Amino acid sequence: MLQNSDLKIHYDKLDTPFLFVNKPIFFNNLTRLRTEIEGLKCELRPHFKTLRALESTPYLLPKKSSPITVSTMKEAEALASAGYRDIIYAVGIAASKLPRVANLLSKGIEIKVILDSVEQANLLNDFSINNHCAISALIEIDCDGHRGGITPDDPTLVKIAQLLDRGAACFQGILTHAGESYQCFDQASLRAAAQNEVDAAVNAARHLRATDIICNIVSIGSTPTAHSYQNLDGITEVRAGVYGFFDLVMTGIGVCTTHDIAASVVTTVIGHNKERGSLFIDAGWMALSSDRGTASQPKDCGYGLLTDSAGKVLDNLQVTTVNQEHGIIEAVDGSNINFDNFPIGCRLHVLPNHACATASMHQHYHVFDIQTNTYDVWTRVQGW
Questions:
Q1: What is the pLDDT of residue 2?
Q2: pLDDT tens digits for range 227-253
Q3: What is the mean pLDDT of the chain?
């Protein structure tokens, strides 16, 4: 993977475990989705939750006015400090977050929150009155029973929108997330989930407009469906997050291959157990996370698949066990590990089950670009 001597020097000097980012693959992933969504005449609003590094934003967002989604107020504040102004905080709003939202509004940041209850709408109206501001909100729509939200035909949808529209807060539109698409494993079911998401969002907006409520934003998205839309008529924007790094969950769903996974954890072989046929590595759940997102998929990847330092997938090996700072690698196809191929001190790469979870275990990302012969360190925005 790193034939260039200068990059290899950087790579070899880094202590393991560390998060490795293949920058050309990362950039290709970003370009692929943006091209697909813009080709359907829609706007892409990337989700920052996976990357959470300001150094990534010049690649993620074309310009400072580009829209972005966040999962924490800490992300919103960091992006605002870097000059990004169009932000959706896509977690149901709580009272404790509102002063921070108001602070960003006072600085000219166009931040919008989401909600799905009358109680939250009243909370926003009351806070907006008491603090002389107008907090913008989207109503979350439940398109597939995955998590929260209101179904498109629930009368409460119109009631909440009217409360916001007539109150001190500001109603902006609706938002949905096709979380059940993570249970799709073929193109037909992915396209069906994507179309269902589009239909739910468009129907919700239609119900609101039928009562003379303006619905400016119709926001949908998940990485599986974002790569599966056929028509986005009636949709104003698409959100997705993990597509920049990709991971084994996305590989199992079928929206990418292992060659598209841009992030991996570099680890060192620190021991052999020839009697049990296993390798020990210095990456446990503190480096890999304990996410088992592939366990319910047709192919269970344990705690991660392995590649060598050149990027070749070692098909018969998996990280099968993780302790806090140790991982155990075993052969999973009935074969035996050839220990001569993995001497103590050699390095391997672990492909993540869930890139969001694995990235969250690392304060810094080590970004290598073999095309431009550059190495960078990106710092993750930590906290909430």
A1: 76
A2: 999 999 999 999 999 999 999 999 999
A3: 97
Residue 71 in tokens: 């999962």
The DSSP symbol for 186 reads S
Positions of CATH 2.40.37.20 in the chain: 5-19+262-379
DSSP 320-373: EEE-SS-EEEEESSS----GGGS-TT-EEEEE-S-HHHHHTT-SEEEEEETTTT
**Sequential DSSP letters for 64-98:** TT--EEESSHHHHHHHHHTT--EEEEEEE--GGGH
**In this predicted model, what pLDDT tens digit does every residue of 217-230 receive, in sequence order?**
999 999 999 999 99
CATH fold of 40-242, please? Answer: TIM Barrel (3.20.20)
- CATH 3.20.20.10 domain extents, the chain: 40-242
C-alpha span between 268 and 344 (Å, rounded): 8
Q: Does domain 5-19+262-379 have CATH number 2.40.37.20?
A: yes
Question: Is pLDDT above 70 for 168?
Answer: yes
Specify the DSSP class assigned to residue 56. Answer: G
Contact 48, 69 (CB under 8 A): yes
Contact 255, 227 (CB under 8 A): yes
309's tokens: 């330092």
In the beta sheet, which residues pair with residue 110?
86
pTM > 0.85: yes or no: yes
Q: What is the pLDDT at residue 147? A: 87
Tell me how far apart the alpha carbons of residues 47 and 218 are, in angstroms, rounded to a whole number. 16
**What is the per-residue pLDDT across 333-349, written as a single tens digit (0 to 9) for each?**
888 999 999 999 999 99
pLDDT at 3: 67
Locus of tokens 């409460």: 156
